[in-house]
Target: Pyruvate,water dikinase
Amino acid sequence: MPPTEDHVVPLDRLTRTDVGLAGGKAACLGELVRGGFPVPPGFVVTTAAYRQPDLSRYDVTEGRTAGETTGGGGTTTAGEAVRTAIIEAPVPEDVAEAVRTAYRDLGGGPVAVRSSATTEDLPEAAFAGQLDTFLNVIGEQSLLDAVRRCWASLWTARAIDYRDSRGIDHGRARIAVVVQRMVRAEFAGVAFTSDPVTGDRHTMIIDANPGLGEAVVSGLVTAEHIVVDTRRSRVAGRSAGRGEVVVRPRAEGGTERVAERPVEAALPTPAVWRLVRIGRDVERHFGRPQDIEWAWAEGTAYVLQTRPVTALPGQPAEPGRVQRMMDAMLREVVPVRPYPIDMTAWASPLVGLVEKTVRATGITVQPLDRMFVEEGGVVARLELTWPRLNRHALSAPVRLVRGARRYDPGRWRSDPMVDAMQRHAHELRARDIGGASWPELVALLQEGPRIAAAGIELRLRYIPRTALALGGLYVTLTVLRRRRLMGALLSGVDTFTTDANHALEDLAAIIRADPGLSATFADHTPDELLAALRPSAPSFLADFHTFLDHYGHRDTTTPLLITQPAWRDRPEVILGILKGLAAQPPPPAGPHPGEQAEQELFGHPLLRRAPAPLRTAVRTLLRQARWFQQVRDDTRFLLVLPLPTMRQALLEMGRRLVAAGVLDTDQDIFHLRLNELDFAGTWPPEPERRADLRERATRRKAKRAELAGTPLVPTHPVSEPSGDVVLRGTPGSAGLADGPVRVIHGTEEFANLRNGDVLVATYTSPAWTPLFRRAAAVVVDTGGVVSHAAIVAREYGIPAVMATVHATARLTDGQRVRVDGDDGVVRLLPGADAG
Model:
């Protein structure tokens, strides 16, 4: 056992090299103290004091406790068991006594207790917001309780997922705890020494709010936003905060949130310039741009935390309107940075097929390596340039018309290729992945794109006629001055996605009709539900697994990435959707927007008086144009059929490479390319090959972590809001709707949406479609008028505003807003609270 004094170390004894002893956060703070920066005094409960439970009892990697059969709940179930074990176990007496002594030496009283993991606040893994902090902790026993809970936060679902996503071994993760004298902040917030969005090294961003900094870092408020031009030493921009809530310490310990806006709600000018000076000095000390948490109290600025801002983007030239729209769409199509295996096993063949298909229409698009620009073997950015005409351009219209005459999109589902794709995918899924040889696993990965090739061919066959019909309908509506009806007129077509939605509603109806099932869903989190349902609802589980058999291959993020889990991989996502659907009856069905738009169209004076053949021609045009959405959505549904099986094969290969000592985790295989895995010979691979694979995976993994702060596609600032307008974007679906904000960051939060909420998200995919029936409106950071969110919003007749850039950052749960889908703006309603 380490000596007692190693359990607790004063901050001023630490430097930036002491990450293994004190974690990233504490090591940075110790470096600041030794550098003479204003840091509140304190000490660190070191990693030597952290006693990790026996992880052999908790199979976190596989997502189950020892002895439990594989099933839902996954990593979260095991993580929760570890957390419970840590929280319920007393702090060892030698550690407790060292903590009590250090607390008394600090003077007792209120302290801030912050987690400091060995994987936190590093250039390659910021870990921001993943671990717990406890403010205004008073008393020795409360301090020990807070220390235990900080240790336990290493095993929350979000922390486990974060480590998984970066290939960090759970067994090697360690945690320290920082204890500092509490600063009774008059103002607090964050400061970026370089603009994290544009990458401008001569711009400092300061966000501030009265009270403690939790309100800012947790996104509870619209903070005061100050932009400082450090080259000219002037404030280049300043927007007032809304002060929706103030977090302040309570006399008995802990904090409280109050909605009472202080009389003086703006950060004093002396504080601004003091923070600028401190920010410059901290950046100079660490040699790179910094993200600093600060507090201002009694005329003094304190540094509470600093971490590096990794891989800032360069400053792009001011884009035009079309480029902004293209970039917004790209951010929706590829919201997650592809791994090398994504590019080589799936995206490259898929994009290659699309490129070949498009070239036949007379258009040449940029090659894949110029679209996905790599640095160090990792995709660094996504660049899309204008296509150009090729030698097939003159003959393309003839081929387009010929194909349109040959293939009727109204009968496309009966094409034999549809059955062949489904049969081929079913055969892949039936393979014995665990018993397959290495060459058989490689061959399976190579078969997946062949199924996708059939989906591309289906689009090539059936899109031409519906595309011509779309053009004809657009011209017709332009002549009749009814172009605004276009989106609504195209809605109302059944797709595989709407079939999945109906199946979900049927399952939700079963839950609502059964009191026992309703109670089970109400009393358990989505991660707990599968285990809770096994003994009590076998019939419902059979129906649930039938749903997964039909629709479980749906991608939760984008169809371009093989590494992202599908519904079948994360059944808790679907259970979360069902929990939300079953919690309240479905909203009453109103008139379909497509039917209303059609009545308005044919009620137009020119069409009302037109001869019958002309009216019939317009109806035929409308019917054929409507098939576009079905062909587009359903072929995407079919394209991703092989993805879960391919991902399962990849992870099996990863496990074998871990056993051979090549990789640290099975997901490290994502950093390798398919051709690098296609090796012949005996198993395991030869030592030279093993060493080469390990070096490649390690190098690319580090590069990917370095690029974590760099956006794939540039984020172009939109015009600043004014008056009651809090956001501006692109109109996606017409209409006006009021409602409370509900920010949904991912599929794991689907259960949080309630009837009448305004759905706010970074992007959406078909996996999100069940939420639209409940939402009053949709506001999205990315996308455009033809993106998924806009199309589905028009289908359901709810307003949508796209490409807002900052919606998920500026809006908070509970705020009441008005979404104007006609003008593309979001207004904050008078008296709206943060909730």
